[in-house]
Amino acid sequence: MTCEHRRVPLPPVIDGDRTLPAGYPHPHASEPARKIASDGLILRVQVGSGAHGIAMDGGNDDRDEMGICLEPARFITGLARVPSGTNGAEPAIPFEQYERHTAWDRPGGVAERSGAGDLDVIVYSARKWCRLALGGNPTVLIPLFVPDAETMVRTAAACELVANAERFVSKLAAERFLGYLRGQRAAMVGESGAHTNRPELVALHGFDTKYAAHAVRLGIQGIELLTSGRMNLPMAPEHRAYLLDVRRGEVPLADVLARLDRYEHELATLRDSAAVPDQPDRAWVDGWLHRSHLDYWSSYRPDSE
Predict the structure, then answer these.
(1) Which three-class secondary structure state does DSSP give residue 154?
(2) pTM for the full model?
(3) What DSSP element (H or E) covers 50?
(4) Who contacts 104 (Cβ-Cβ below 8 Å, separation ≥6)?
(5) Are 121 and 21 in contact (CB under 8 A)?
(6) Terminus-to-terminus CA distance in the chain, angstroms?
(7) Domain ranges of the chain
């Protein structure tokens, strides 16, 4: 891609479900944090396998959602804080996100693994989300490319953000995609220091096929982002078919490793290419944050807290 920003049509506003699971005794799951996230929500999308088009047959996947919210003025211009979980008697931490996993409601609490029918949702403050996205975080960039069918909430502010997704593309993203791919690859084969929480897949296939699919997906989407400024969601049919074969353990480990070698080489080449900007467009993002918060504050009513 080139450094010149292309004009992209604004996507439609979507006014859907803002309901978030109730607070929980977790540092980022207090009721005040939930209310900030719900009231200021500007974008809410599915970011898991369903959005990518690689959900397994049988409905065994949980549902992963990500959102972005704007904060009331007193949390930015003042010293307001939120409690650290529902057990915190006094506001203790700055608001950065609301994170909730419905699997926590089972007897094992935060130790419970999410499974079929569970919802994992995280709503970042716009400021934190922008910091992560400007750094090229692959997971955080996904909401910019989720189609309408997998989007529950998208306000006018979020429409502007989505239409300017290319401004977040830089060599920093290339480096982060490479790092994430290598981390998933290490976990896939159980390298020293890596961690897998799916020993059943290793026992069945000889390697963690879910980590393998994540690593391959990161390679595909990183190359798409750095060459076109976009990620295709859902993924192209040929990519979806291959990833599902990987997840089912139908692709030999040697084939997966060879493909990952190729993707690593392509990502490294793109990282060093003059066609990819050295830095994202921080000035535009800074302006968007200012405009969006000012617009939100002009209509926000403190008595609704």
Answers:
(1) strand
(2) 0.92
(3) helix 49-52
(4) 24, 26, 110, 112
(5) yes
(6) 44
(7) 23-167+281-304, 171-271
